[in-house]
Specification:
Blueprint lengths: L16 H14 L4 H47 L2 H4 L3
Helix pairs in contact: 1-2
Length: about 90
């Protein structure tokens, strides 16, 4: 019996034939390797990409919120410096 690598679990999974054929073709083009490893690498890449997108979205949300808050504050301070007669208020 072959011992599994640490951090890996043997499972049974059903994949579309297209998926298996694609990864087997990649292995063949590369001159050898293991198509299951390529599938695993693709799944890990998807996890990393999703994590990166989530991080970017969070940064954008924070920047947009900070920008809105900054613009509101500058509008208020600009309005307070306009003389009442010039601003149309009496």
């Amino acid at each position: 019996m072959i011992e599994p690598e640490p951090g890996k679990t043997k499972i049974s999974i059903r994949l579309d034939n297209r998926v298996i054929e694609h990864f087997r073709a990649l292995v063949e083009q590369a001159g050898g390797g293991n198509y299951q490893t390529l599938i695993n690498d693709a799944l890990v890449g998807q996890i990393q990409q999703t994590s990166m997108l989530d991080a970017v979205r969070q940064v954008l949300r924070e920047e947009i919120s900070a920008g809105k808050a900054g613009r509101l504050g500058s509008r208020r301070s600009a309005a307070s410096t306009i003389p009442k007669a010039a601003s149309g208020r009496r």
